[in-house]
Amino acid sequence: MINFVPFVNPKTQSPLKKTVNYFIDIFTNEKFPILNKIPRFCDKENYSSSFGFQWNTFRETQLDSKSNTDLSYQRFYATTDWDPIILAQENILEVGSGAGRFTEVFLNSCNGFLHSIDLSNAVEANLKNNIRNSNRLSIAQASIYEMPFEDNAFDRVFCFGVLQHTPSFSKSIISLINKTKIGGEIVVDFYPIKGWYTKLHAKYILRPITKRLPQKFLLKLIRINIRWMIILFDLLSFLKLNVLTRFIPIADLSTSPSKLNSTQRRNRAIMDTFDAFSPAFDNPQKIKDVAKMFTSNGCEVSFAGVINYHESCYSYVVRAIKKS
Q1: pLDDT tens figures, 229-271
Q2: In what order do the strands lie in the sheet with 137-141?
Q3: Which of 67, 148, 163 is nearest to 115 (CA)?
Q4: Which of 131, 211, 288, 301 keeps 20 to 30 A from 202, CA to CA?
Q5: Taking the complete model, does pTM exceed 0.85, yes or no?
Q6: φ, ψ for residue 43 (rounded to 5)?
Q7: Which are the contacts of 295, defined by CB distance < 8 A and separation ≥ 6?
């Protein structure tokens, strides 16, 4: 029978005792608060604050259950190539949940138990979105570098859309490997470096400024300008001048699901544009370099490449098995 992996002190891996308001280290009496039913193992203010603001503002935008799409479902299973029947018999860790789009997919598509963390207070949006399945969801606010679990605890670990936004991509990979059992699998996706032109893009040109703007101001700026940016993006696409769309300070609209109505498309464009211009870190990688990070740390790479999971949507994916 599968049980939740217990929380431990993320710095020492010492056992914790749960009280009404805290988890307490049984050896040092260090306390980790439980706020809004979620244990917190990191500082409230950290480099991921823009994501907390984003996912609590756009709490339901990416959910399959609210957007009339199966985009998250398709991405999850195409990226992992996992069997939902097997997942019900294993301990699974999600690192970087955001508002819980993949948490929802997991809980709705299999009978397994999921352990989910995020560095930002987006964990509150995740819990609200998945409260009906909270008996199979263990959620905590924690850093990828100091996860509140023992090493070698999980059969499978997945981390989607997160690694490029961490201070050190390679150290983040090592953290994922550490929490995986020998013989267990880690699956990640990430922003790619496609060539010399990758950073010749409005996002990378303007981010040194936009990431320093107050989050509410940046979001307001995007909302004010989103209409003309969508019109210009669509016009350049219609004229087959797609190469020029990279210089418009807007997210790539070509990856939006075709079934979205105009309001949904506009809201997703606002959210994705904020997502592009607000993070403290944005470090795209070459697939071969990410694969090497795994092989250099005791893993065997079973897949490293590009997966088309929905219409014009692609994931750059590495899957690896921990061997030592």
Answers
A1: 999 999 999 999 999 999 999 999 998 877 788 998 999 999 9
A2: 137-141, 113-118, 91-95, 154-160, 180-190, 313-322, 299-310
A3: 148
A4: 288
A5: yes
A6: -65, 145
A7: 301, 320
